[in-house]
Specification:
5 helices; globular; 81 residues; mainly alpha
C-alpha cells in the first residue's frame, strides 16, 4: 500500500469516529439499499471530512487508486466491510 502508515492511521481513526457516532451503518446496510462497497467506503471518507486533509497530505504522493486501496483496508480493519 502506498499510503504512509501515519496517514492511514489518521484516516482510520477519523472513520472510526464516524462509525461510532452512526451505529448500524455498514457495507451490508448499503448493499441492502442496492449500493456498492465502494460507495460505502467513499461515503464514510466524506462523512469523516477527510477530503481537504487528503488533498493537503496524501495527494502529494498518491492518487485515488491508492486511496481506495487504503479505504478498503480501513473498512475491513474496522469490521464494517
Amino acid at each position: 500500500m502506498k499510503i504512509k502508515p501515519e496517514h492511514y492511521a489518521y484516516m482510520r481513526d477519523a472513520m472510526a469516529r464516524v462509525l461510532k457516532d452512526n451505529q448500524g451503518i455498514s457495507a451490508a446496510s448499503y448493499a441492502a439499499q442496492g449500493l456498492t462497497d465502494r460507495r460505502f467506503r467513499w461515503d464514510l471518507f466524506w462523512a469523516a471530512k477527510l477530503s481537504q486533509w487528503v488533498s493537503d497530505n496524501v495527494y502529494k504522493y498518491a492518487n485515488d487508486a491508492h486511496l481506495d486501496t487504503a479505504l478498503r483496508a480501513i473498512v475491513k480493519e474496522l469490521g464494517v466491510s
